[in-house]
Write a structure and sequence with these properties.
CATH architecture: Orthogonal Bundle
Strand content: 5-15%
Number of strands: 3
Order of helices and strands: EHHEEHH
Number of helices: 4
Helix content: 55-70%
Radius of gyration: 18 Å
Strand order of the largest sheet: 1-3-2
Amino acid sequence: MRFMTLADVAEELNVTVRQVYALVRSGELRGIQIGGRGKWRVETQELESYIQRQYERTEQLTADEHDEPKGHTGAADMISEND
């Protein structure tokens, strides 16, 4: 399937349709409007690109956490304290 409905994307990402709509409207996730009613569709390749960007963003965030100054309680400290 080349194009997915917002409901299909929501199911794939395990989020709500409203969240997917917000991603499309903000431009974070590229989509197109088609038909007389302007129904949104997302190309599968665009969804895969979005997912890849989120992986890269997450990697950057976790790398930044490792660079925090000593004495700062980061997420990793919180996890080990609660285990």
